[in-house]
Automatic annotation (TrEMBL):
Amino acids binding Mg(2+): 43, 82, 112
Family indicated by similarity: Belongs to the PanB family.
NCBIfam families, A to Z: panB, PRK00311.1
Coiled coil: none
Enzyme's top EC category: transferase
PANTHER family with a match to the protein in the record: 3-METHYL-2-OXOBUTANOATE HYDROXYMETHYLTRANSFERASE
Cofactor: Mg(2+)
Positions with a binding annotation for 3-methyl-2-oxobutanoate: 43-44, 82, 110
Record's catalysed reaction(s): (6R)-5,10-methylene-5,6,7,8-tetrahydrofolate + 3-methyl-2-oxobutanoate + H2O = 2-dehydropantoate + (6S)-5,6,7,8-tetrahydrofolate
Full protein name: 3-methyl-2-oxobutanoate hydroxymethyltransferase
Name of the coding gene: panB
Localization (cell): Cytoplasm
Amino acid sequence: MKMLSSDLLAMKDKKPISMLTAYTCPIARCLEQSGVAVILVGDTVGMVEMGFESTREVTIEHMEYHVGAVRRGAKNTHIIGDLPYMADNDPNTALINAQRLIKAGADSVKLEGAKLDVIAHLVSSGIPVVGHTGLTPQTAKSFKKVGNTSSEAEKVTVDAKKIQAAGAFMIVLEHIPYTLADQITQALSIPTIGIGAGSKCDGQVLVINDALGLGDYWPPFSKQYGKINEEITKIAREYCYEVESEMFPNNIIQFTGTENR
Ligand code: KIV
Ligand code: NA
């Protein structure tokens, strides 16, 4: 059954939280079937599905479209909708945009950085918020690990604590040293969800395209559980061969009588 933000919060120190991204209805259907705890409709959609160089090209309209598609495929799974770049610049703009994602089907929203007044405003308006610190791609100049120096590590730690204090019920820690992620996870009372942050977080998130082996780049900290690129190419090649050699659709018409359906 669909988990609420309170259920996810209660999983801290009890059971690791599984999270995958999804952007489309058929993938969302499969993920719900798999029993994944949470689906994130991330603004990574801009890079892994739309072919942009960064997530900064993604708009609130794009996010509404994808949140809606994912909700139609996964009616009983907790869905987090990402607030895209600039959509959360001030508390009032953020509230309008968060409400748009909730209306499109999200159960909660995620936003990058220690925007404490924004988080507090959304939470006090009844919108569950997931924080995100460490590497924050909307504003990062590179995709390098964050927190290798002691001053950087200190900032990530302080930001995580502030994000919790502002009212977030969960927080993503992206691409930070594993010992730092472990320390932050122990210091916080809300669940931490790691990506490139080691095994000591309260949960893990993986971009579905990375897990599938779909795309042209997968971060080194990701894992490919399949080779979907190869599978799609193989299917398309077989189809082209059958059309060009006049096998398809003759082979299905002849044997299954599909022309009468
Ligand atoms: O947009 C996204 O998919 C994310 C995850 C990588 C955490 O924010
Ligand atoms: Na994101």
